[in-house]
Design brief:
six-stranded mixed β-sheet, alpha/beta, 3 domains, disordered C terminus, about 750 residues, Alpha-Beta Plaits
């Protein structure tokens, strides 16, 4: 900063020098003003002489105008309208002096003819324009042009019928100056000021410039031949002193500007430009370091900061487009890559393969072997994909265990072969830390232009093929037309569920369960139904499976609980003692708040918890046995009964069955629908019934559709049966009517023999 202080001192001294020059100039001006005051009498004499000269010239000019309009020949020619003849006659009668002119004007003040002596001061076009701008020339005596103030006199022609009138004039300033040169020896120059209020008859404003550089502004009043000075203002302006002072100030200013620009302004401008460049994001432009001290340190720091920002932005851009773990392209650039590839394919007439790849059950590797092993697996998959790809192909990681490959420059057969080869290269075992890991690969492929004509559509169709491969357990599925319609239907189902709940498109049906011993209905199973306004009736198996995959099943479960409990309250108020069984999914078992939400609904509708039975499938329990046992225990603690649905299909171990807090098992209908006494199903069914009874559980058989099956189950000791033999699923109102008919049928079968014994 020492250099900066020195520069500031130099600049301050420069400014001080300027101030001293200004003071000197004022002193000189004051002294010359005193001289001007002493010579005021001489200047006043010059002003009076100028006024008298002006009166004389104005009088002569007016007399010239009158002499011309009284000339018989001129009047005669003006009456005839012969302007050229008038002009020639004027030239003969009135030889004009320098700076004088004669003009013939029409009634609109437009000059029809113009006669003037040769002059470099008067400009004919300017005089014409000045006269044309006057609204009236009757009283005007001074008229301004662009360069002069002229004195004019106007006279009408003697012939009253004439359409013209005559104007004469002279350049007042130059004429007065010429006359005063002879009177005062050329020491005073006269400038006639532009006409304002002083431009009236008998008044003139003059500016008299003396040889000493002073200016006297004089306002003269002309009354006949008498002159009165009505205003007298002395200006202390000294041209020579001002010129010297201006030159000195100019030199100092240039010196000051040079020093300030070089040592302060230029470095600051360079630094500000660099800061603005960095602010605007143009970090590739280097900062100029060779600036004057002490700003070079700031420039150096800015350049270091720019390099750091540039490096950081490059890393950010790399991370934005590339996956950190595998080094592959990431999801953000896939769409742009597809568009470019499709443009090239259209020009070259080739085929593009879009391959969507997923590692099935990859989460189990992370869960059982750790994320470090999972990362190594992903790196190996990325390495295999990259090693099998050509330079024109694109390999990207688009999700946790999802990859996307774009294969270019193929025909349709080669495209299919490359897709199959790419998938097969991933199926061989991967060795990590001494462990052998074999993955199940699922992939879908779509082709351009065979399947679509846009990047987004091609990507979507490849994902539809992947979805189909997952659904059917295949390693590779080539997209086929129509698969997207199914996919769109599934998306519509998932998207429309919230509106279906809000618009009452969902409803419950109830299928009764009959106690085989009493043949009474004590419980019904709530079954959800959906009638979509566009898609029509959607089977429960279809939309429930989709909602489980999308993670939206919890919303549906809560709605079913609420409707079922509300209906239980309605039946209780009507005098019906009916419990309701509600199905929950594996996703519901992961909801830690399931029991608390159910208790709130029971409390809201004042329904006993024993009136609600939760049915959970055997396969759902096996997915997460530990958490399932925890949630079911919470439900049992709340007073809710639990039933193990679809028993016999989920491979539940006896050890797990013993831990489950259930009160009922439900035999899967696949064992019941075709039940015969001599079949293997009969052995399984009887074994399940005996197992359940031995464990103190009730046993329910669903899918009963024949009397033979009914009787066989009755002989096995089954507690409850459910199926179309008893009743199809019914709405709440239909079930109420059905239940009344069942009760009437039981009443008609009562043994009334005791009545005859009492009357005998």
């Amino acid at each position: 900063m020492k250099d900066l202080r020195i520069k500031a001192i130099v600049i301050a001294l420069t400014v001080l020098g300027l101030a001293q020059l200004v003071v000197l100039g004022f002193n000189v001006q004051q002294r010359q003003g005193d001289i001007m005051a002493a010579n005021a009498a001489q200047v006043e004499l010059a002003a009076r002489l100028a006024g008298e000269a002006y009166v004389t010239m104005r009088t002569q000019n007016a007399q010239l105008a009158q002499r011309l309009v009284t000339d018989a020949e001129i009047a005669k020619q003006s009456f005839r309208g012969s302007i050229q003849d008038v002009e020639r006659r004027i030239t003969v009668l009135a030889p004009l002096a320098d700076n004088e002119f004669v003009g013939i004007l029409d009634s609109s003040n437009l000059v029809q003819s113009f006669v003037t002596a040769p002059s470099s001061i008067l400009n004919a076009d300017q005089i014409k324009a000045a006269l044309a701008q006057q609204e009236s020339l009757a009283s005007a005596r001074l008229v301004s042009t662009e360069t002069n103030v002229i004195s004019i006199s106007v006279a009408d022609f003697v012939e009253s019928k004439s359409t013209f009138y005559l104007v004469t004039g002279f350049a007042a300033g130059s004429a007065l100056t010429r006359r005063l040169d002879k009177a005062v020896g050329g020491e005073v120059a006269v400038t006639v000021l532009s006409p304002g209020d002083s431009a009236q008859e008998g008044a003139i404003a003059l500016a008299l410039d003396g040889s000493n550089g002073s200016t006297l502004n004089v306002q003269l009043s002309v009354k006949g031949n008498k002159l009165d000075i009505t205003d007298f203002t002395l200006q202390k302006s000294i041209a020579q002193t001002i010129v010297v002072l201006s030159l000195a100030a100019l030199v100092c200013s240039l010196l000051f500007t040079r020093l300030f620009t070089r040592y302060i302004d230029q470095p600051i401008v360079a630094i500000r430009r660099a800061i603005r460049t960095i602010k605007e994001g143009r970090v590739q432009e280097p900062v100029r370091r060779n600036v004057e001290a002490p700003f070079h340190n700031i420039a150096h720091d800015l350049e270091s900061m720019r390099e750091a920002i540039c490096d950081r932005e490059n890393r950010i851009m790399h991370h934005a487009e590339y996956d950190t773990l595998t080094g592959l392209t990431n999801r953000s650039v896939i769409s742009e890559k597809l568009k470019l590839a499709m443009s090239r394919a259209q020009r070259n007439g080739t085929v593009i393969s879009a391959l969507a790849i997923d590692l099935s059950r990859f989460s189990e590797i992370n869960g059982s072997m750790g994320h470090e092993v999972g990362d190594e697996v992903l790196k190996e998959i990325a390495r295999r994909l990259a090693s099998n790809a050509r330079i024109t192909d694109t390999v990207a990681r688009v999700g946790g265990d999802e990859f996307f490959v774009i294969l270019e420059d193929n025909d349709i057969k080669l495209a299919q072969s490359l897709a199959k080869f790419t998938v097969s290269s991933l199926t061989s075992a991967i060795h990590v830390n001494g462990s052998e890991i074999k993955l199940n690969i699922r992939a879908g492929v779509a082709f351009f232009p065979q399947h679509c004509d846009s990047a987004e559509a091609l990507r979507r169709m490849a994902n539809i093929g992947l979805y189909t491969a997952k659904e059917h357990g295949k390693s590779l599925v080539i997209y086929e037309p129509g698969q997207d319609e199914k996919h769109l239907r599934e998306l519509a189902i998932i998207h429309d569920l919230p509106n279906a709940i809000k618009n009452n498109e969902l409803y419950l049906q109830y299928q009764p369960k009959i106690d085989m011993e009493t043949q009474q209905v004590k419980q019904v199973e709530a079954l959800v139904r959906w009638r979509h306004p566009q898609l029509g009736f959607i089977p429960p198996d279809e939309f429930i499976a989709l909602l489980e995959k999308s993670g939206m099943i919890n919303r549906l479960t809560y709605w079913v609980f609420r409707e079922a409990i509300r209906q239980a309250r309605t039946w209780m108020d009507a005098g019906y003692d009916l419990a309701i069984a509600v199905n929950i999914s594996a996703n519901d078992l992961s909801d830690e708040k399931l029991a608390s939400r159910l208790k709130l609904l029971l409390h809201h509708y004042l329904v006993d918890a024993a009136k609600i039975t939760i049915e959970v499938t055997e396969s759902a329990v096996i997915k997460d046995p530990e958490n399932s046992v925890k949630v079911l225990n919470e439900l049992r603690t709340a007073g809710v009964c639990c039933s193990l649905d679809d028993f016999g299909t989920g491979q539940t171990s006896l050890a797990l069955l013993k831990q489950l807090p259930i009160s009922e098992i439900k035999i899967d209908k696949s064992f019941v629908q075709n039940l015969r006494a001599d079949s293997g199903d009969a052995i399984i069914v009887k074994s399940i019934i005996d197992l359940g009874h031995n464990m103190g559980l009730h046993v329910v058989a669903e899918g009963v559709e024949s009397n033979y099956c009914w009787n066989l189950l009755n002989s096995y000791g089954c507690n409850l049966v459910q199926g179309y033999l008893v009743s199809a699923p019914l709405t709440a109102d239909e079930l109420t009517e059905w239940h009344l008919r069942l009760q009437d049928r039981h009443m008609n079968k009562l043994d009334l023999s005791f009545v005859h014994d009492m009357t005998a």
